């Protein structure tokens, strides 16, 4: 994307205003994706794509419309602007529609966030990483087959501009490696995986380590049993404990609150988790996978505390949901090129506790250590929770035999109120949590 792209987008917004729009904004995303996948030493997939997406949103009074295109072509600007304005004039009024009044004026970039890595891997580089990961996984005793290993590189260049005076641009890179393998044979096969993705190549874990962990995790799952049905404590591995933050994110989304469809809609300022629990959303985290300098409406992003000492402190708001609730937006808007902004959180994490994972489960006579969850029956209105799971029994405070084909059930209100975090927080993705223990969960097994 050239420097001239900013001028072209400014010209598009000017065309929209000339066509009759009272206000307008535009987002332009240029993406490069390069990835390979190997399976049993053979190349199974090789792809490279370069795409451009443009979205123009216009307001005519309290009416809004969006049009999108796949090229930043000035010869089409008049047509795009006229079409958008014509659409806006015939849709129903939305009294909450409009540009974000709190958006920053002037130009904003990602200085200080370190989101761009100039290292650009070749196909040969990606192939070598994928093969290294697969070979390391297959070398683990007991691994019988491969589901494939992959390596990828991505680059996104993003421009957002509004008719109210905001313009912003930033680029983000990504590097990743994954491996998935099978152990056992016949009806006794098990599979598992490992995966790592970073903004900078220098932060990416060694492909051989990722492959070896995938193999070891897979072999450890062989010959699982079904636990007894009953009420037991569970301990969530960090690979799955992050899902609790995902449920929290959905429950404090401004759209859900405005619609009254969240089980936390009446809990602002109340204790929803034990004292000592703090959850933070940090879109300013340096090299964070979800970091961004501004949101989808041009507000500057800022670190915010979602839960402090167990107390719910804020909703995630874009300007529309904030107007519905009579509140001020807080820089959480996210958007693509074909839809309006909506609240979304960036780099969430739960601060660690004081106990090691070993200490956290030392007093559990019988429980379940969960390493994988599948399916989802989460009622966002009531908080009722039910998911399939697999992992290991905890007996006498230590991990024992693998378990599978079980269901974990409860209510997120109760689960939040009982959770206890360990001290093993690491930042591996955009949402991160330590090992978490929750007592008295309903387990449906044998």
Automatic annotation (TrEMBL):
Residues 24-88 form the Metalloprotease TldD/E N-terminal domain. It holds the Pfam family PmbA_TldD_3rd. Residues 117-222 form the Metalloprotease TldD/E central domain. SUPFAM superfamilies: Putative modulator of DNA gyrase, PmbA/TldD. It comes from the Bacteria. GO terms for molecular function: metallopeptidase activity. The lineage of its organism: Bacteria, Pseudomonadati, Pseudomonadota, Alphaproteobacteria, Acetobacterales. Gene3D superfamilies: PmbA/TldD superfamily (3.30.2290.10). It comes from Komagataeibacter sucrofermentans. This is Modulator protein. Residues 229-445 form the Metalloprotease TldD/E C-terminal domain.
